[in-house]
Write a structure and sequence with these properties.
Number of helices: 8
Pfam family, one: Methyltransf_12
Protein name: SAM-dependent methyltransferase
GO molecular function, one term: methyltransferase activity
Largest sheet: 7 strands, mixed
Keywords: Methyltransferase, Transferase
CATH architecture: 3-Layer(aba) Sandwich
Length: about 280
């Protein structure tokens, strides 16, 4: 398991340095410096379900370079971002130093989050899209979320739909399920030199290990951790071109199926609350 973690960390170290570029590639981070009111497309999509988060003590797990994290802060939350990549954390700190947003960033594997953050102290645990596929056990993740939340606190996660992750993106003539829907002990192994956004060079740390987690597995893990499910919504769009050649771009950085519109969910949102007693 340590090999999987180390390999994925090297990949995300490499991505972080490119995603944080100030040259108009990657996450286009210069926009957040130039416009102090700008919110990321990901957080803007989440707003109708997030609601008012003014003053909420918030932990953003797997925060990467911090564009969603600072967006939560701009909505009034008191945010701590956590990521296992030292490069991502350094880039996130450098970004908020330029933007002036009040965010704390901590370097840690998500499974150790309750050891480096104060357990039971967060009103909101936020996990952005594209996070769970890097974790071998969704049950362990749910346990960490439950430990971090204060009584009455809630989890908010929007994630790529496990059905989407079964599809082979290399085949563009139709939807081709090829990969496991359910969590497997052994990960899928990928080796590719491109990222999901435009970058100014290829990746050098190209190998990754990923796991899928079925909707039922995610929901059950949260229930078993003692949380109460309050929201489960499936969406017909995803914030990257997940299936090249088969998607149409919408406003707000979202992509939906073209010819196969409505055939499959592409993302989902879950919210769950930790009971008061």
């Amino acid at each position: 398991m340590q090999e999987y973690l180390d390999t994925n960390r090297a990949n995300w170290d490499d991505r972080a340095s490119m995603h944080a570029a100030r040259n108009g590639t990657g996450y286009l981070v210069q926009r957040y410096i130039d416009d102090p009111d700008l919110l990321s497309d990901v957080v803007r999509f989440d707003l109708p379900r997030l609601g008012d988060i003014q003053g909420l003590r918030t932990a953003h797990l797997q925060c990467h370079i911090g564009t969603d994290t600072l967006s939560l802060a701009r909505l009034g939350a008191r945010v701590t971002g956590l990521d296992f990549s030292s490069v991502a954390v350094a880039e996130a700190r450098a970004l908020v130093a330029e933007t002036g947003d009040d965010v704390v960033f901590v370097e840690s594997d998500v499974y150790s989050a309750d050891e480096v953050l104060v357990g039971g102290s967060f009103d909101l645990v936020y996990t952005g899209i594209g996070a769970l596929c890097w974790l071998p056990s969704v049950t362990r993740w749910a346990g960490v979320v439950a430990k971090l939340l204060a009584p009455g606190g809630r989890l908010h996660i929007r994630e790529g739909h496990p059905l989407l992750f079964t599809l082979d993106e290399r085949l563009d003539d139709d939807l081709h399920p090829r990969f496991p829907y359910f969590e497997q002990a052994e990960p899928l192994v990928w080796d590719q030199d491109s990222s999901y956004v435009e970058t100014d060079r290829p990746l050098t740390a190209t190998k990754t290990y990923e796991w899928n987690h079925g909707i039922g597995e995610v929901v059950t893990a949260l229930l078993d951790a003692g949380l109460v499910l309050t929201t489960l919504v499936e969406h017909d769009s995803v914030p990257w071109e997940a299936l090249p050649g088969q998607m149409v771009e919408r406003s707000g950085g979202e992509w939906a199926l073209g010819a196969r519109a409505g055939v499959a969910p592409l993302t989902y949102t879950i919210q769950a609350v930790k009971p008061l007693v």
